[in-house]
Amino acid sequence: MSCGNPHETDCREVLEKVYLYLDSETDEHDCAAIKQHLDECAPCLRQYGLEQHVNAMVARTCGAELAPDSLKVRVLARIQQVRIEITESVEY
What we know:
Elements: H1 11-16, H2 18-22, H3 28-40, H4 42-62, H5 69-91
Helix pairs in contact: 3-4
């Protein structure tokens, strides 16, 4: 996904790291770059809001249970696959 406007950090790069950002798992440089991008880019901010909502819903549903690492890897891979499919369908 790209909003078509030039940004210091590309939209795709931000959206690839949005879950890490939500979980405070980005380094200081990435955190600052993502925050700046979200402040400037309404489409990415909307996507971030959706991801934030999903993250909160999963946290409420799962409670204190931790997902196995293998599940996390599969979920993140599927999310990336869906993002690619959406991007390809929009580009045509």
